Amino acid sequence: MAVAKHFPGLGRVDRDPHFHLPQILVDKREIEEVNLPPFRKAIEEGVSALMTSHAIYPAIDNDRPATMSRDVLTHLIRDEMAFKGLIITDDLEMAGDSQTVGCRERGIGRFRGGCRYIIDM
């Protein structure tokens, strides 16, 4: 089963999300024109799952990492891109992600955002 990651893209990441919570400071135009086309093509080709990024994308959601953002998980992936497959998240214990809230709250945040499967490796 193929998984496209790390949605919506880590091309301009300013630090390693394994160790820090990055912010990707790009505008919506760049996200639409640069980051999303590979994911749109993967969806068109029938990719089984999308794995979200632990980065914050202020142009989409100023407050929450993509893994916990309803704007990313539900509005962008499900509504706008019409993706029907699995949305999964990266490891709950990555240091960048764990700087925001505790493990329990991170899991709950993902489900509230729209993620239904959490991969913890």
Q: Can you tell me about this structure?
A:
With 121 residues, this protein is an alpha/beta fold. It has one domain. It has 4 helices and 4 strands. It has a 4-stranded parallel sheet with strand order 1-2-3-4, covered by helices on one side. The radius of gyration is 13 Å and the shape is globular. The protein starts with a strand and ends with a strand.
Spatial arrangement of strands, main beta sheet: 1-2-3-4
Residue runs with pLDDT of under 50 for 5 or more positions = none
Order of helices and strands: EHEHEHHE
Counted by DSSP, the helix tally is 4
Cα shape: globular
Strands, total number: 4
Largest sheet: 4 strands, parallel
Q: Strand-residue fraction?
A: 5-15%
Q: Any idea how many domains?
A: 1
The radius of gyration computed from the alpha-carbon positions, rounded to a whole number of angstroms, is 13 Å
Which class best fits the helix and strand makeup? alpha/beta
